[in-house]
Amino acid sequence: MFLQSLSLQYFKNYEKADVSFCNHFNCLVGMNGSGKTNILDAIHYLSTTKSAFHSLDAQSICHKGKYFVVNGVFEKLDKIHQIHCSLKKNSRKTFKVDEAEYDKLSEHVGKFPVVLIAPNDDELIRESNETRRKFFDSIISQYDLSYLQALIKYNHLLKQRNALLKKMNEAGKVDAIMLDTYNQPMIQLCVEIAKKRMAFIEEFLPHLQSNYDRISDKKERVSIIYQTKVLSTDFEQQYAKGTQKDLITQRTNLGIHRDEYLFEIDDYLIKKFGSQGQQKSLLISLKLAQFEFVKSHLGITPLLLLDDIFDKLDDARISQLMSIIGSDDFGQVFVTDAREERTRSLLEGKFEPMKIFRVEHNTIEELT
User: Fold this and answer.
1) Is 343 annotated as a binding residue?
2) Which keywords are on file for this protein (predicted)?
3) Do 35 and 12 touch, CB atoms closer than 8 A?
4) pTM here?
């Protein structure tokens, strides 16, 4: 699978842009703030229906425009597909594949997979468990639609149950029958989701370790600890007993939304005891494992987006990463870099075919 061309209208800093890509290495060079990352985000939209960097779609509309349009032409399994994403201010987002609009955007997830390695990936280590849950949920959802549907349903019920808890707290009266209409389906969804998360980690971990070995020369053993109360034998009883606390706090305190993922290196928490180099190696290994995992489950080679990684890695890790992604296991790759000469020295003559584009003044120009 590869992206043949991209067309933008009023998307972020671009009033209008059209660009055609090659099927292997595509390098976007230009000063910081020129819009290189916005090109990657447009590709991310076409793959996932949403931005990789903003939670609100309206933030992707150019300040001079009242809407944005992102169109892409993909070749997948010898067939050409036209993907369209657009949004008008104060309107619903439109998403189409080959002129057909989805009933639900979730139906698109996993059809045109992408993996992004970006500077803010360190949030997976530094930030809350919610960040790690979202990361792993996004991987599972790309190959297991029933998981995604269960997750969407659970989050909907969770929002409703929390609203009910707040209402009962304010009224000073508990409606046990009404609460039970949420409790039973949520408990069932919790067990279904937790079992799939546990099975995923068991399958994912060997991919993570093998990639970490390649990045770090087999120096340490890494692991992911999945912690959940859902799979305990008395979870349903715990859930019932927690109602009083739920009423006081006005939120649901047990469930898969409280699950935790911990990254360890040689049995120590990498967040507390890992060096900067070890943390960077783990982050790269996570994304490469994601790439392998999605590819093996979907039978499609994802697009790989590398955003400003040369400034964040030392020369040894850059060399190791380039040698890995230069293999036949990888397909189309997009790289951004603020220094054109560095990109040329690292990639020219080593990866073919390759295109270099200069991004400046809100335009994209292909270089020779």
Assistant:
1) no
2) ATP-binding, Cytoplasm, DNA damage, DNA repair, DNA replication, DNA-binding, Nucleotide-binding, SOS response
3) yes
4) 0.91
